[in-house]
Design brief:
3 domains; elongated; alpha/beta; Rossmann fold; 6 strands
Length: 317
């Protein structure tokens, strides 16, 4: 009985020691070397007929000379994320050593993105046991690394909770942060951040967009004498123009014909979405353009299923 008990204790201690040795050996195993340059996250592709908007790009570059962080603020559909994507692609082409794209709609996504990046760059202290610990290790790494980096925080919504997770100042001057948001709170301008207001296209940019889009589709004849009236009716909003152009290309509809359809839809929207209820001033042209797209989708085989599918999706999380 005494021998059995001693044997059991010995076996227990042996198992603990073996486990400890295994952990030490595992930690001692060399990790694969980090390969630079590196991209973490999915940088969106640029949209068809993307407009570079040189005035805004110049302002972003100027603000980055005196600030680590630049925030692109504006309403929905004005092209903030596309501008940020263009900036990220340019950084990659220019040889920036680390480009990180994070969907920042929820703070938890930011923490997860940082934690994943910490492992990719092998930041000291990132051991994979806790996402917040690893995320902080990444921020600590950014604060001391001499490497060039760009962190993009796309679609910031919770400005109160993001406070501890803003990337730090770059000691070498080679680090930059670009954020996009619909918010315009005073919190945005704290911490030495610069704000760039992003609005709709200018009329010239809107017309150029349609011209480039139709030219790429070999349907430039759709750009008729009503093009200026159409871009004005769409509010020069990039997202609404994208929906309209796609519809016109798919249905071979000219600007004049589409303008008639759009005007009719706008009339029917008066009671559902009155102008005073559109807080950002951008909703009506997008809704009208989407309703026209839905009409076209309803006619595609199998006929009549597009609307029921949308209704079903509206009930799902």
């Amino acid at each position: 009985m005494h021998i059995t008990a001693d044997t059991s204790v010995f076996a227990q201690r042996y198992a603990i020691a073996a486990q400890h040795i295994g952990q030490v050996v595992q930690r001692a195993e060399p990790r694969a070397p980090v390969v630079w340059p590196m991209r973490v996250g999915t940088v969106p592709q640029l949209a068809s007929a993307f407009q570079p908007r040189p005035g805004l790009r110049e302002q972003i570059d100027q603000d980055h000379t005196g600030h680590t962080t630049v925030v692109l603020a504006g309403g929905g559909g004005v092209g903030k994320s596309q501008l940020a994507a263009a900036y990220a692609h340019q950084a990659l082409a220019a040889g920036t050593e680390l480009v990180v794209w994070v969907n920042a709609a929820e703070t938890e996504q930011v923490v997860t993105g940082y934690a994943a990046t910490a492992h990719r760059v092998q930041a000291p202290g990132a051991v994979g046991q806790d996402a917040e610990t690893d995320a902080r290790a990444f921020l600590d790494w950014l604060a001391v690394t001499p490497r060039s980096w760009l962190v993009v925080l796309d679609d910031l919504t919770d400005l109160e909770r993001i406070g501890p997770w803003w990337p730090p100042l770059s000691p070498s001057g080679g680090g930059r942060v670009l954020a996009t948001t619909r918010r315009r709170d005073a919190l945005l301008s704290g911490g030495g951040r610069a704000i760039v207001e992003v609005d709709t296209y200018t009329p010239a940019e809107a017309l150029t967009y349609l011209h480039d889009r139709f030219t790429g589709a070999r349907l430039v004849h759709l750009l008729d004498q009503q093009a200026q009236d159409l871009v004005r009716e769409l509010g020069c909003l990039p997202l609404a123009l994208a929906h309209a152009a796609a519809h016109m290309i798919n249905e071979a509809v000219s600007c004049a014909r589409y303008l008639l359809l759009l005007t009719d839809r706008q009339v029917h929207l008066e009671r559902l979405l009155p102008r005073q209820a559109d807080s950002e001033g951008y909703g009506r042209p997008i809704v009208a353009a989407l309703l026209l797209a839905l009409d076209a989708a309803q006619r595609v085989d199998p006929v009549g299923l597009a609307a029921p599918a949308l209704r079903l999706a509206a009930h799902l999380d």
